[in-house]
């Protein structure tokens, strides 16, 4: 028998039992659809994490206060001060920018609305280093910082919080802790993320915060932007050298500060979400195996029902290879048809989750090819035994079968 004839016979057998064929494919449809949807969820989460890290800025190192010894007592929190920022700003060779953050929550009032909002005292390069874009107005200048001007830059969530058009707020006054500040600019929002809401904050000049708003020189963190990503390790050593000298830490003593590399944070989160994607895909793949078992079950039933047909074909000259190929093609075609429908179902499910549940999903061509190829493989693996059983039938015994 020619391959075309074998294929025609296999397709005729599938068409002859339409309902059974559809029910048989259902397991594969669900399996492939589940794999694509679950992988899309994992891939979407992974891309979201990467986008969030990129939004925070590139080539950045974050320095936070740590713990140290005081009076023989350990685990005492050590404060970082403005002098630490100045030492880093003036002493780093590999640093492109150094940005301090004095942070405090104050009662903020605009018009007849108010709220408790985080106020950050920082320098004008905060916006560029952290990848913010200006929506309206401008950023305060170094001159305004040195002069301790009462000016403020609103992050993108503040206009939404007060239900006001961002451009309309520029030039207006806003009260921070009962003191009026002029709004000189509004930044574009980045959106709420796993790292917290980056938009519901207000920036004021560093020296204004130090002397007029907060009255303290204690800073919450310092962000260091490295000139070149290849110099990150050198920059971390520089930060350690400068701050150890600044804090008079003796040789062999533990650091009383922490340095975090955001790129390492990205790598860790990426690996975590990748594992999460594999886990979801593996769970969904179990349903594909269940569908494959269903295919094998139905094919065994089909072989039993068509025993006399197999005997007749063998009596007319069909070889074992012909019979085996016929039933194997039936199993593979069922799985591939189910896989094609499953791709549509899975892609549709991913799109529906993105629109209705607002989940991040990403349907990649590689996941589609993987699921489709796996479904074809399931057809071969689970169709092999029924096909082999049909091929090994004795034609005389098969012709006698009732």
Give a verbal description of the structure.
The chain has 402 residues and is of the alpha+beta class. It has two domains: 3-52 and 267-400, no CATH class; 79-255, no CATH class. It contains 14 helices and 16 strands. The protein has helices at 3-16, 18-56, 82-91, 126-129, 142-146, 157-162, 166-169, 206-213, 232-246, 262-305, 307-315, 320-356, 365-391, 395-400, and strands at 60-65, 67-70, 73-77, 80-81, 95-110, 113-122, 134-137, 151-154, 173-176, 179-187, 192-193, 196-197, 201-205, 218-219, 221-226, 257-261. A six-stranded mixed barrel has the order 5-6-13-8-10-9. It has a two-stranded antiparallel sheet with strand order 2-3. It has a two-stranded antiparallel ribbon with strand order 4-14. A hairpin with a 2-residue loop joins strand 5 and strand 6. Helix 2 packs across helix 12 (320-356), helix 3 packs across helix 9 (232-246) and helix 12 (320-356) packs antiparallel against helix 13 (365-391). The chain is elongated. The mean pLDDT is 84.
């Amino acid at each position: 028998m020619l391959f075309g004839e074998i294929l025609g016979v296999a397709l005729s057998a599938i068409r002859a039992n339409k309902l059974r064929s559809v029910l048989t494919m259902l397991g594969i449809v669900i399996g492939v659809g589940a794999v694509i949807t679950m992988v899309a969820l994992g891939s979407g989460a992974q891309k979201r994490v990467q986008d969030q890290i990129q939004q925070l800025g590139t080539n950045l190192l974050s320095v936070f206060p740590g713990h140290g010894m005081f009076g023989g007592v350990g685990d005492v929190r050590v404060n970082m001060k403005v002098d630490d920022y100045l030492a880093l700003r003036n002493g780093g060779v590999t640093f492109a920018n150094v940005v301090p953050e004095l942070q405090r929550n104050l009662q903020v009032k605009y018009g007849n609305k108010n709220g408790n909002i985080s106020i950050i005292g920082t320098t004008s390069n905060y916006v560029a280093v952290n990848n913010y874009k200006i929506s309206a107005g401008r950023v305060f200048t170094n001159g305004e910082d040195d002069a301790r001007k009462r000016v403020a830059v609103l992050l993108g969530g503040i206009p939404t919080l007060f239900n006001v058009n961002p451009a309309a707020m520029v030039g207006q006054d806003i009260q921070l802790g009962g003191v009026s500040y002029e709004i000189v600019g509004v930044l574009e929002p980045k959106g709420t993320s796993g790292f917290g809401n980056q938009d519901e904050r207000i920036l004021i000049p560093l020296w204004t915060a130090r002397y007029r708003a907060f009255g303290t020189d204690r800073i919450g963190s310092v962000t260091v932007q490295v000139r070149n990503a290849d110099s990150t390790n050198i920059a971390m050593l520089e930060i350690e050298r400068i701050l150890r000298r600044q804090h008079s830490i003796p040789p062999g003593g533990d650091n009383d500060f922490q340095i975090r590399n955001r790129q390492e944070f990205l790598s860790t989160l990426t690996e975590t979400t990748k594992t999460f994607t594999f886990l979801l895909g593996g769970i969904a793949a179990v349903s594909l195996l269940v569908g494959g078992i269903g295919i094998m079950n139905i094919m065994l039933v089909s072989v039993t029902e068509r025993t006399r047909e197999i005997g007749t074909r063998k009596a007319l000259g069909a070889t074992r290879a012909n019979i085996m190929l016929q039933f194997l093609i039936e199993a593979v075609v069922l799985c591939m048809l189910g896989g094609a429908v499953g791709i549509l179902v899975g892609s549709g499910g991913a799109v529906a989750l993105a629109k209705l549940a607002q989940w991040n999903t990403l349907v990649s061509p590689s996941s589609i090819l993987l699921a489709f190829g796996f479904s074809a493989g399931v057809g071969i693996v689970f169709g092999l035994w029924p096909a082999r059983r049909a091929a090994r039938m004795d034609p005389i015994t098969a012709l006698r079968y009732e």
